[in-house]
Model the fold of this input.
Amino acid sequence: MNDGVNGVALAVFIFFFLAVTVMGFLASRWRRAENEHSLDEWGLGGRSFGTWVTWFLLGGDLYTAYTFVAVPAAIYAAGAAGFFAVPYTILIYPLIFTFLPRLWSVSHKHGYVTTSDFVRGRFGSKSLSLAVAVTGILATMPYIALQLVGIQAVLDVMGVGGGENTNWFIKDLPLLIAFGVLAAYTYSSGLRAPALIAFVKDTLIYIVIAVAIIYIPIKLGGFDDIFAAAGDAYSQTNEATGAPRGALVPAEAGQWTYATLALGSALALFMYPHSITATLSSRSREVIRRNTTILPLYSLMLGLLALLGFMAIAAGIKVENGQLAIPQLFENMFPAWFAGVAFAAIGIGALVPAAIMSIAAANLFTRNIYKDFIKPDATPAQETKVSKLVSLLVKVGALAFVLTMDKTVAINFQLLGGIWILQTFPALVGGLFTRWFHRWALLAGWAVGMVYGTVAAYGVASPTQKHFGGSNAEIPGLGEMGYIGLTAFVLNVVVTVVLTFVLKAAKAPDGIDETSPGDYTADAGDEGVQVELPPATAGAGH
Amino acid sequence: MSETSDAPRASEVKPPVVTPVRVVIALCLFAPFVAMLWVDSYAKVDPAFIGIPFFYWYQMLWVLISTALTMIAYQLWQRDQRARKADRSEASQNGGASA
Done:
């Protein structure tokens, strides 16, 4: 990509990387509990995080390095269509305001660590719980892999990725080191490590965005010039498709796609295990509600960040791989030391979510596969041990994925992951509000959604790929193009509702619900809620 | 989309589930969905703001609007809950089973 190694930028990058590594290892001592060998402790940070820690943790978790690279990259490539990330993140918060506090309450009342725990408890169905767990793990793995893609983009632009003909080991060594370190401190410190590192990550990101959004437009002659240049670039015909490259504003035909992508993605986000892990680690349901009012700050940041895509066009950045557009923009525009800060922000931005995702996937495996199906009498210490090991395996798997397969494979799977994870919505959110759905109907709905989504995504071709070329297809019966995940979700709900009527009429056994209505509104301090909190961490403020 | 209420379901002596305050909360939470999913209402370039086309600044403005709405919903909800807790304090609830 680049002619040489950017020494100053690299030095700054390494400095920050070392700093967070030290923090990661020290994190295990941060607000330590007496009983550190329980899964609550390692996997949920003792469930003791207050408003600000939760804010940083959730922000660090949801707005990943890949987001920072991919959203402006999508704008850079096609214009308006990529901006759907903003309405998407706007819709998340009113949505989670309604259901996450209920999940928090019931989880703290019954000691649930994962969404599958809840589904099993609510519907008395191990198979439904297994379906949710497997979907969660499948959807999370490529997401972790994409974090690596984010780090790779930064390393490439700094010139340490090596050229085409370098030995693969030298080429991938920096990535291996970064991941080795990440794996080591996640293993030793659990959720506390990313929570602490998230502070550094977000501070860096906010500084970089604030500077970029003021400094770069001044250098480029203001937003008028930037959008004029971008408008010109989008109107150029793309040779591969014969259509214009993009547009500044979505055309009539693109509006359904835009809206369904925003809605579908918003519904899906809090089905991801890593979002739930960060949520359950908060101290009370109030912390969650309060967070829905301060988390949108990140959405604003994301919107500003998306504008960088236009700036990359106006600055005349030409890259083959769109993922490199923003790192390259930083390199060209900023003095070397500040480019280093920006790269560190992206690099660390990859570590935080990767750590949380691997913990979340490991929790799912331990609780809902290992304990439910392999070793029902596992002690808490054994659970923690298995979880730690699995979190390592998950990361190694993601690494192998990125190193051995083409990058597009990770992106394809991530796209599928979004479609898949959305299919757990009826069981989880439906279950939080009503017990009306029948467990077998939910399972059938899930299966239909998964199959439809996968098949439809397989059938999408793009100029560069025969299959999995995008996440939009014609909505059957409507004739408009829309997000496959949302279509699959609607099918899923229809099947679930119809089958519930059928199964209820047939008097199919309903399963045992171990929760009671009061559990969904219980808060910290209520009877039966406090018990779950390890005593030493419960009261420790910051 | 408007499964707003945290209302405990069907216990005998409970105040009504739907109250004017709760309707306002539901509207606050529902408004962003209408605004954002109605793409046609904002898919245009003019009027631009400091050179940024309408399409972009309008959506970013909605980040702020929806934040304000969620905050209002949060405040109203807290007040609603406190009032209910006060009502409930004599009539002991929560006889249900728990782990």
Summary: Residues 83 and 394 of chain A are 31 Å apart (CA to CA). Chain A has one domain: 7-405. The beta strands of chain A are 472-474, 481-483.
